[in-house]
From TrEMBL:
Family to which this protein belongs: Belongs to the polypeptide deformylase family.
Highest taxon in the source lineage: Bacteria
Lineage, highest ranks first: Bacteria, Bacillati, Actinomycetota, Actinomycetes, Kitasatosporales
Record's protein name: Peptide deformylase
Matching PANTHER family: PEPTIDE DEFORMYLASE, PEPTIDE DEFORMYLASE, MITOCHONDRIAL
Keyword Transcription regulation among UniProt keywords: no
Note on cofactor: Binds 1 Fe(2+) ion.
InterPro entries linked to this entry: Peptide_deformylase (IPR023635), Peptide_deformylase_sf (IPR036821)
Native species: Streptomyces scopuliridis RB72
Catalytic activity of the protein: N-terminal N-formyl-L-methionyl-[peptide] + H2O = N-terminal L-methionyl-[peptide] + formate
Length: 221
C-alpha cells in the first residue's frame, strides 16, 4: 500500500483529535485491535509531517489514551496513525517480589520518535506479556534482557540509551509495533491464556509454574 501523503496524515490526525473542546482536556482515542491492517504494516518515519503543535497535541492525547487503557506503552499505529511514534510510562506499582523477579522499575513519561533497538549481550528473559490491541489475552514472550535504544524525542533531540529488565521489554514491545509486529508473533503459543486465567493462575513473579502446567519450555538462551 502506498504511504500516506503529508496532507493525508495531517487530515487523519486532525479527524482523530477533533472532538471535545481543548478546554475539556485531552480525550482518549479508540485503540485499534488486531486484525486492522495498520498494525501489520511498517509505519512511516516521522519527518516533521505533523508540525510541532499538532505533534504536541497528538502526544498529549496518546499519553491520556495509554493511561485510560491502562497501559505502560502505546504506539501510534495502535490509534490508527501509521507513523514511527510511541509513548511509554510505567509507575511500576508492583510488589517487591515482582519488582525483583522482573527487574521492573519506574519509567518516566517519554516519547520515542523513529526508535530502533539492538540487543546488548546474550541475556534473555521470559515473562507473560499483553497488548492493548489484543485485549483479554496474555502470553509468554522471550525478549532481550538488555537493549540499546536509538531515536529522537518529540523535540528532535537524539536518544541513545540502554534499557534493561522490564523497561527493555516495554521498549522492544512498542518499537516492534512500528514494524508491524505484534507480541503474539514472538510468543510461546502454548502459554496463551485469557487475562482471567493469567491473573488467577499465573500471576506468580515468573512463568515457571505456567510452563510446567501448560507444557512449554522457558528457553531463555
Amino acid at each position: 500500500m502506498q504511504a500516506m501523503t503529508r496532507t493525508e496524515l495531517t487530515d487523519l490526525v486532525d479527524s482523530l483529535l477533533d472532538g471535545p473542546s481543548p478546554l475539556d482536556g485531552p480525550s482518549p482515542l479508540p485503540i485499534v485491535s488486531a486484525g486492522d491492517p495498520v498494525l501489520r504494516r511498517p509505519a512511516a518515519p516521522y519527518e516533521g509531517q505533523l508540525g510541532d503543535a499538532r505533534l504536541e497535541r497528538l502526544v498529549r492525547v496518546m499519553r491520556e489514551t495509554m493511561h485510560a487503557a491502562p497501559g505502560v506503552g502505546l504506539a501510534a499505529p495502535q490509534v490508527g496513525i501509521p507513523l514511527r511514534l510511541a509513548v511509554i510510562e510505567d509507575p511500576a506499582e508492583v510488589s517487591d517480589e515482582v519488582r525483583a523477579a522482573r527487574s521492573r522499575v519506574p519509567q518516566p513519561f517519554r516519547v520515542l520518535v523513529n526508535p530502533s533497538y539492538e540487543p546488548l549481550g546474550d541475556g534473555r528473559a521470559a515473562f507473560f506479556e499483553g497488548c492493548l490491541s489484543v485485549p483479554g489475552w496474555q502470553a509468554v514472550v522471550v525478549r532481550h534482557a538488555r537493549v540499546r535504544l536509538r531515536g529522537q524525542d518529540e523535540r528532535g533531540r537524539e536518544l541513545d540509551e540502554e534499557f534493561s529488565g522490564w523497561p527493555a521489554r516495554i521498549v522492544q514491545h512498542e518499537t516492534d509495533h512500528l514494524g508491524g509486529t505484534l507480541y503474539l508473533d514472538l510468543a510461546e503459543m502454548r502459554s496463551l491464556s485469557s487475562t482471567e486465567h493469567a491473573v488467577a493462575r499465573w500471576s506468580q513473579p515468573t512463568p515457571a509454574l505456567a510452563a510446567e502446567e501448560l507444557g512449554f519450555t522457558l528457553a531463555t538462551r
